[in-house]
Amino acid sequence: MPEILEPKAARVIRLVDQRTANLAEIARARMAATPIAANGLLADALGRPLHDLRISVTDRCNFRCNYCMPKEVFDKNYAYLPHSALLSFEEITRIAKLFAAHGVRKIRLTGGEPLLRKNIEFLIEKLARLRTVDGLALDLTLTTNGSLLQRKAQALKSAGLQRVTVSLDGLDDAVFRQMNDVDFPVHDVLEGIEAARMAGLGLDANGRLTGLKVNMVVKRGTNEQEILPMARHFKGTGITLRFIEYMDVGATNGWRMNEVLASREVVKLIHTELPLLALQPSTPGETAQRWGYADAHGNLDPNAGEVGMISSVTQAFCGDCNRARLSTEGKLYLCLFASQGHDLRTLMRDGASDADIESAIGHIWRVRDDRYSELRSLGSPDTGGGAKRVEMSYIGG
Ligand code: SAM
Ligand code: SF4
Ligand code: SF4
Predict the structure, then answer these.
(1) Which among 100, 202, 210, 327 could bridge 331 via Cys, Cβ 3.0 to 4.6 Å?
(2) What is the dihedral of CA 15, 397, 220, 387, to 10 degrees?
(3) What are phi and psi of 34, to 5 degrees?
(4) 68 C-alpha to center of ligand 1: Å?
(5) Spatial CA neighbour of 249 closest among 112, 95, 389, 131
(6) Across the chain, what does the average pLDDT equal?
């Protein structure tokens, strides 16, 4: 496919169609186009900045959550990436530094299960040394299923991890064991969360616990009866519980709309027993709508903590989406629902300079116009053209 170069006067250089881009095209375009030096002010085609980078450090997991890595697909014959395909810690750090120069302020390590990556704390040490364009430390966090957290929480904190999000889909052991599909008990995840709290993960500069979060994916017909017990359990603990609508990510989970329980239903349900009050977003581009608990007088109870609703299906938030995703093998994805990524690993391993990679990132981000969830809610047929979407375990949640 030919490169699409816009007239210079427009000062926007459309390099390639991002859904069909490959390294050769990017590299060719990079040579042809004006280099883009990072100045921290990068914006995409819809004016969205680049603030958040999610890095998948492994495509493997010790769980088989049926909404993410169903056992029937991710079985013993599944072809995971060989170690040589994975970005090394040095490569990840190099790319992360260039993203920080472009304005990234927050890095989330994810996967697969990120704590399965050997010596992950060495990577965290390296990332913790990076600085934003304003000279501040990056907001460094990680999403985990919690299974190895009890063992690793202290080492992660000592390495410089600031916060952690733990996924837990219910408190009923039978329900949770069925959902993770490897018979993993709730108790061990709760112990992991406690270990994270004891290690000081999630404490802000004022010593308040604001960054320890629990994510619960809600699947209608599977675990909606766990919503209230989860809300009761975490209310007043300082741990923020977030409910995520079951999403149509990847191509293997057999997603059906009638298994989605809309966040507004979750709010309604909690509100019947634990009255909620809407809170303002704390940062632009925040994925979750925030709710606080009311006290007996209907005022916000500051000691009760908050819950978040991530309404990816019923209330798309693409308009503020400032997130890029780096896959386990170094492909840059511009949307969770993308089917193709931009191969930064080959660029790096072919000997590109930092300036070249920085420029490539700049060009890729500038033409980004992804807004899958918005298009889906508008009923648009232009939501991927039937292309096979990448799996969440590979691209990172
Ligand atoms: N293994 C780690 C974990 O489970 O926390 C990190 C990777 S996981 C892909 C990241 C997040 O994506 C988790 O909170 C998980 O519950 C969520 N997730 C995975 N598949 C999902 C789906 N189909 N819909 C909504 N959330 C999903
Ligand atoms: Fe593993 Fe996380 Fe996916 Fe569950 S959601 S299968 S824990 S990567
Ligand atoms: Fe961002 Fe894509 Fe999700 Fe929209 S659908 S919020 S663009 S990741």
Answers:
(1) 327
(2) 30
(3) -70, 135
(4) 7
(5) 389
(6) 90
DSSP string, 92-132: HHHHHHHHHHTT--EEEEESS-GGGSTTHHHHHHHHHT-B-
Measured by CA distance, the residue closest to atom 4 of ligand 2 is 65
Among the residue ranges 5-9, 100-104, 214-218, 246-250, the one predicted with the least confidence is 5-9
The number of angstroms, rounded, from the C-alpha of 254 to the middle of its chain's C-alpha atoms is 21
**For ligand 3, which residues put their CB under 6 angstroms from it?**
317-318, 321, 323, 335-337, 370-373
Nearest ligand 3 atom to alpha carbon 321: 1
| 373 CA closest ligand 3 atom index | 5
Do the beta carbons of residue 13 and residue 33 sit within 8 Å? yes
Q: Which residues line ligand 2 (CB under 6 A)?
A: 61, 63-65, 68-69, 111-113, 145, 167, 393
Q: Taking CA 94 as the corner, what is the angle to CA 117 and CA 127, rounded to the nearest 5 degrees?
A: 55
Q: How many angstroms does the Cα of residue 303 sit away from the middle of ligand 1?
A: 28
Give all domains of the chain, ordered by start, each with its CATH number: 46-265+313-353+370-395 (3.20.20.70)
* Range with lowest mean pLDDT among 7-16, 42-51, 175-184, 309-318: 7-16
Compute the distance from residue 330 Cα to the ligand 2 centre, in Å: 20
pTM of the model: 0.91
The residue whose two tokens read 């609703």 is 309
Residues 77-126 pLDDT 10s:
999 999 999 999 999 999 999 999 999 999 999 999 999 999 999 999 99
